[in-house]
Write a structure and sequence with these properties.
It contains 5 helices and 8 strands. The protein is α+β, with helices and mostly antiparallel strands. The protein folds into 2 domains: 131 residues, no CATH class; 39 residues, no CATH class.
Length: 186
């Protein structure tokens, strides 16, 4: 995939500091990851319009995910991150630069960049689903992208004929995932 090489060479966002991270400041491993994944590199040059206003909108009235003092979501906002979702092991959020990050500490004291392509896909899909103003982050399906084997393309978890709305499918709710990606370690 060939993406336009326009825009600044900003490739990340320093979590909690509110400043950009230039390629010269990145570890050699991060630069290699960006070089191998054009979609990752493209999203890394983005900025979320109205990000600060979105953070300031918390707590969102009627928020089905819960937002209260001491929650992982409240801690994410306090650290300048947009909370997206959590699973049994990690909490996931976006930086102002649309960079998916995660933590296994609900206080966000050990925030790390998310490098697994499938996990990044899920975070972007869920961010687009949960925040209508982020619909532009919704991944676009390519012809080679397979239908999700778990949900058979519905995006919903079904076990023994029962649909579990609160359980996120491995496809992030889209019914497909990027070709060649694997759901592995974050």
């Amino acid at each position: 995939m060939k993406l336009p090489d326009d825009g600044p060479k900003v490739v990340g966002f320093v979590v909690g500091l509110g400043s950009t991270l230039l390629a010269s400041q990145m570890s050699e491993n991060c630069v290699k990851i960006l070089a191998q994944d054009p979609l990752l590199a493209y999203y890394s040059r983005m900025a979320i319009p109205g990000f600060r206003a979105l953070l300031a909108s918390f707590p969102i009235p009627g928020d089905p995910l819960g937002y209260y003092a001491g929650s992982w979501r409240e801690a994410a906002v306090r650290h300048g991150l947009l909370p997206v979702y959590s699973d049994w092991e990690c909490c996931y959020a976006l930086t102002e630069g649309a960079e998916p990050v995660y933590t296994s500490d609900t206080r966000w004291t050990d925030t790390l960049p998310l490098t697994n392509q499938r996990h990044r896909f899920i975070v972007l899909a869920q961010a687009a689903e949960r925040y209508p103003e982020l619909a532009f982050l919704r991944p676009k399906r390519a012809p080679a992208d397979p239908t999700c084997r778990t949900c058979n393309g519905t995006g919903k978890r079904v076990v023994n004929g029962v649909t579990y709305e609160a359980i996120l499918c491995e496809c992030g709710g889209l019914g497909w995932y990027p070709a060649g990606s694997e759901l592995g370690a974050v």
